[in-house]
Design a protein that fits this description.
Number of helices of chain A: 8
Largest sheet of chain A: 6 strands, mixed
CATH class of the largest domain in chain A: Alpha Beta
Number of domains of chain C: 2
CATH topology of the largest domain in chain C: MetI-like fold
Oligomer: heterotrimer
Radius of gyration of chain C: 25 Å
CATH superfamily of the largest domain in chain A: P-loop containing nucleotide triphosphate hydrolases
Distance between the termini of chain A: 41 Å
Strand order of the largest sheet of chain C: 1-2
Number of strands of chain A: 20
CATH class of the largest domain in chain C: Mainly Alpha
Chains: A alpha+beta (370), B mainly alpha (307), C mainly alpha (298)
Strand content of chain A: 35-45%
């Protein structure tokens, strides 16, 4: 390994001309460094530039500006068939005129690997994805999940340094998708290959990745571990995109050390003892973000404990949790309470019931206003 | 009865399909049967059919002749076999020339921007809407000794001060080949386009991703996946070329006689419908055999309908 | 910009093939303005010096119509007008009948199971896999034998005798048009989502109303394109017409073919040019009409 990074994108821009003649930036000054052996996800909704970024690494698109490095080497206009990366396509892109075996062998034949060795390696690859015995079938005769495994085997048999996966589980049903997530993760750990994984499914990204790049409008919003992007989102977009949040607009009233008092405009109250990140000063307009599962419903109001009381507006029972919407001085906050005890025995909150909400300072996130 | 009709789906289907089936039976099947019967008949002196059972027409077609040098009662005369062979080889040649010309164009259209594809296809169809006979005539004008091609070459040669004797192009096998290619080229472009257009872009990317350069991608992915289109196109080109007689009539003159010309002359000039029917049946059997083996090997795609 | 560019070889081949497709047609049109009556070499355009046609040997020196001399000539040619009339009459009649009959059988083949189905489906491929000339002489044999027999039995004489003519050409055209209409409409029906019909029936429409109000309007584009295909096949047909026409039923292709075997004047080119123009304009208008319809629907 010549470089610390398996893949590096340095200030990459990709512009497209639409058929109407407008120029749009699908990828806008993206920089990311993906470490060797890492499971790295690009997460965002459609059109955020994640797939285009992946395609530039694969070599299906060329960068407009900036450079893609693989193993430290600039890729320039090196064609896909000379890059040491392989792709699992969203549509699988299996060759319908070839059998499963021929599909998997395709890449090895291109390397002029000997016939015997091809047989062995294809066999091992099919075994790895649990498709032994299916080698003579045509892709059309397989289920969606099996086709997905063929696509995976076809890419992995080439022993790439980096495996690129473009929403590989998107076409599978929920249950199968969850199974495949675990399998993919295990496979990645077992092989030690760098995976770059594109998905719009946040749960999938959180469950599988070492690190996640959250993208929107062609830009990287945040790169971090699943815990970091969920617990410490850097801006309102990330906080809103990953998981759910209550957002409250406010102003920093006073700062001491790393704690602050934040005045919430809509509630006309002050939150105290809030830890804040660097770069915020007294008087800054901020957005306060609180995850619904981190708000506790308490019996009584205790002064100076960031506890506020209101009335229950609505209750939704969803099995594992109960979602409670609480009206607080005209603002609706969502609160998720885990159903520790069966709701057969403990009653659901009634609409109009008086409740108090505890907003623990350590669970309250202060974000600079965008 | 109407009550039964309302209830029986089968009866309703039969009734809906009846006009078509009857029409095709009377005007396609019966004529074929009739042709078969006539081909075993004998020509009466005034050019009518005497219904007997004789294989004379077929024997004559396959080379038995009574018109021999003095002293011989019968001999082998491959005149008609030569015509059959000439038609067959012309059809083969036309087909492969058409494939070579149609493929790049079909590929170009299939890979063009989706919004431009219909325009390009439209441009392929326009020549097809001029009349078949008119298209042959256009080539007659181009290929004549004093025609446009010779005029242009002559003019170029004149500029370069090279002496030039105009080519004799009309009334040669080459002229017939060019005419056939021109007539049937669009029938190859359309089905090949249809099968190429179905190939998802990601398949080209997958091939490149797995290490195939553009040549290998073409040979291993594009070509096999466009096979159904080429098969359909071949059927749409090969069969009509086998039976066409105008192209050879006008561009080949008396020099290039094909099965089609032979059949036509038996019915109109020689007034021997029995021999004409025999030739026609052999032509049909030949095309059916070629089509059968060809489609059995490569499959009969839906591309044929798209054209 | 993208690694998947089109290779210059393909572009060059494409340009060549388009040139190959269009050069003869352009030449044909150019020669329709030829001053030379023999139309062998191009002798320049015809000037309009005088009010009457002036000839010098085989050259037209002047014509009141100027370069359009041969078009004026064409308009005065009664044979052409008659052939054009015949061609259109046959094409319209045959298209209407073939479209109705073909659509019916497409519905039958796509929707119902019945005894004759495999036979019906297979017979559709006959015109595709059997050379036209084989069908042509078969039909000719049928008509000549049948008519000969009828004439004899009924003792018909003179004008009363049954003979080849407009009717035989039209009936034969319908025979080879039906399969094409059926296949096109069938392809359309294959892509038809049955839930539209189920929705209509669910809302209280009976089968006939469902067909009239839902199915028919939705497959109408398919029926129209089948009809258009049939119409152009009929206009273009030479072989079948050649063997089934008789006195008074000469169509344009037959007429042109006849001219080609005799002396050819640029009149043929003028006729071809008018033909190309008419077909082109018709198709163009149809395309615009269809596009407007499809954008309205979407």
């Amino acid at each position: 390994m010549t470089s610390e990074f398996a893949v590096e994108m340095r200030d990459v821009v990709k512009k497209f001309i639409t058929p109407e003649g407008h120029e749009i930036s699908a990828v806008d000054h993206v920089t990311m460094q993906i470490k060797n052996g890492e499971f790295f996800s690009m997460l965002g909704s459609s059109g955020c530039g994640k797939t285009t970024s992946l395609r530039m690494v694969a070599g299906f698109e060329w960068t407009t500006e900036g450079e893609v490095f693989i193993e430290g080497k600039p890729m320039g206009h090196i064609p896909p068939f000379q890059r040491k990366v392989n792709t699992v396509f969203q549509s699988y892109a299996l060759f319908q005129h070839l059998t499963v075996f021929q599909n998997v062998a395709f890449g090895l034949e291109m390397e002029h690997v000997e016939k015997e060795e091809i047989k062995q390696r294809v066999g091992r690859a099919l075994e790895m994805v649990q498709l032994t015995g299916m080698d003579r079938r045509k892709p059309k005769q397989l289920s969606g999940g099996q086709q997905q495994r063929v696509a995976l085997a076809r890419a992995l048999v080439k022993t790439p340094e980096v495996l690129l996966l473009d929403e590989p589980l998107g076409a599978l049903d929920l249950k199968l998708r969850k199974e495949m997530q675990l399998e993919l993760k295990a496979l990645q750990q077992q092989l030690g290959i760098t995976f770059i994984y594109v998905t719009h499914d946040q749960e999938e990204a959180l469950a599988m990745s070492d690190r996640i790049a959250v993208m929107s409008h062609g830009r990287v919003q945040q790169i971090g571990s699943p815990v970091e992007v969920y617990e410490r989102p850097v801006n309102k977009f990330v906080a809103d995109f990953i998981g759910e949040s209550n957002f409250l607009e406010g102003r920093i009233n006073s700062i001491s050390e790393s704690e602050a008092k934040v005045f919430i405009h809509s509630l006309n109250v002050e939150l105290i003892g809030i830890p804040i990140s660097e770069g915020l000063v007294n008087g800054d307009e901020v957005t306060v973000c609180i995850r619904p599962e981190k708000i506790r419903i308490v019996e009584e109001d205790i002064p100076n404990q960031n506890i506020f009381c209101g009335k229950v507006a609505n209750t939704v029972y969803i099995g594992a949790d109960t979602h409670v919407f609480v009206n607080l001085y005209g603002i609706k906050l969502k609160v998720w309470e885990q159903n520790f005890i069966s709701r057969l025995h403990s009653k659901l909150y009634a609409v109009g019931q008086d409740v108090c909400l505890a907003l623990a300072p350590e669970n309250t996130l202060v974000l600079k206003k965008d | 009865m109407f009550q039964r009709l309302r209830e029986s789906k089968s009866a309703r289907g039969t009734l809906l399909a009846l006009p078509t089936t009857a029409w095709l039976f009377v005007l396609l099947i019966i004529p074929l049967i009739l042709t078969l019967i006539v081909s075993f008949g004998q020509r009466s002196p005034d050019g009518n059919v005497i219904y007997t059972f004789t294989l004379n027409n077929y024997i004559r077609l396959f080379g038995y002749s009574t018109d021999c040098p003095v002293g011989q009662a019968s001999c082998f005369e491959p005149l008609y076999l030569n015509i059959l062979w000439r038609s067959l080889s012309l059809a083969f040649n036309t087909t492969w020339v058409v494939v070579i010309m149609a493929y790049p164009l079909a590929y170009f259209i299939a890979r063009a921007h989706p919004k431009k594809r219909s325009l390009y296809l439209f441009m392929v169809l326009i020549p097809l809407w001029t009349n078949f006979v008119i298209r042959v005539y256009a080539w007659m004008m181009l290929l004549r000794k004093e025609g446009a091609i010779n005029a242009i070459i002559g003019w170029l040669m004149h500029l370069l001060n090279i002496p030039f004797v105009p080519f004799e192009m009309l009334y040669t096998p080459g002229a017939v080949l060019v005419g056939m290619v021109y007539e049937f080229l669009p029938f190859m472009i359309l089905p090949i386009y249809t099968s190429l257009e179905k190939i998802d872009n990601s398949l080209y990317e997958a091939a490149a991703d797995l290490g195939a350069n553009s040549l290998k991608t073409f040979l291993r992915v594009t070509l096999p996946l466009s096979m159904p289109g080429m098969v359909a196109g071949t059927i749409l080109v090969f069969i009509p070329v086998m039976g066409t007689f105008i192209v050879s009539d006008i561009l080949g003159g008396r020099q290039v006689i094909l099965v089609g010309n032979l059949i036509q002359r038996q019915f109109l000039d020689a007034r021997d419908p029995t021999f004409g029917s025999a030739v026609s049946l052999i032509l049909m059997v030949m095309t059916l055999i070629v089509t059968y083996f060809y489609t059995r090997k490569f499959g009969f795609g839906e591309e044929i309908v798209s054209a | 910009m993208s690694p998947f560019r089109r290779s210059p070889v393909i572009i060059a081949a494409t340009v060549f093939v388009y040139f190959f497709l269009y050069a003869p047609i352009v030449g044909l049109i150019l020669y329709s303005f030829n001053a030379s009556r023999t139309n062998v070499t191009f002798e320049g355009f015809i000037p309009a010096y005088s009010n009457r046609v002036v000839m010098d040997g085989s050259l037209v020196v002047s014509s009141p119509c100027g370069p359009f001399h041969w078009y004026c000539d064409l308009a005065k040619n009664d044979d052409v007008t008659e052939a054009a009339g015949n061609t259109l009459t046959i094409a319209f009649t045959a298209t209407i009948i073939a479209t109705v009959v073909g659509t019916m059988s497409a519905l039958a083949l796509q929707r119902y199971n019945f005894k004759m189905k495999p036979f019906s489906q297979l017979s559709l491929y006959i015109p595709i896999v059997i050379p036209e000339i084989v069908m042509g002489i078969g039909i000719l044999t049928l008509f000549s034998q049948l008519f000969g027999w009828i004439n004899q039995v009924l003792n018909l004489n003179g004008d009363a005798r049954l003979a080849l003519g407009m009717a035989t050409v039209t009936v034969s055209h319908i025979a080879f048009m039906i399969p094409f209409v059926t296949l096109v409409v069938q392809a359309r029906l294959q892509g038809f989502d049955k839930s539209y019909e189920e929705a209509a029936m669910d809302l209280g429409a009976n089968e006939w109303t469902t067909f009239r109000r839902v199915t028919f309007p939705m497959i109408l584009p398919g029926i129209l394109s089948g009809a258009l295909l049939a119409f152009t096949l009929s206009l273009d047909d030479f072989v079948i017409t050649f063997f089934t026409n008789g006195p008074g039923s000469t169509t344009l292709p037959i007429y042109v073919y006849g001219l080609l075997r005799r002396t050819i004047t640029p009149q043929v080119n003028a006729l071809s040019t008018v033909w190309i123009l008419v077909v082109f304009v018709a198709i163009f208008l149809l395309q615009i009409f269809q596009n407007r319809n499809s954008t309205q629907h979407s």
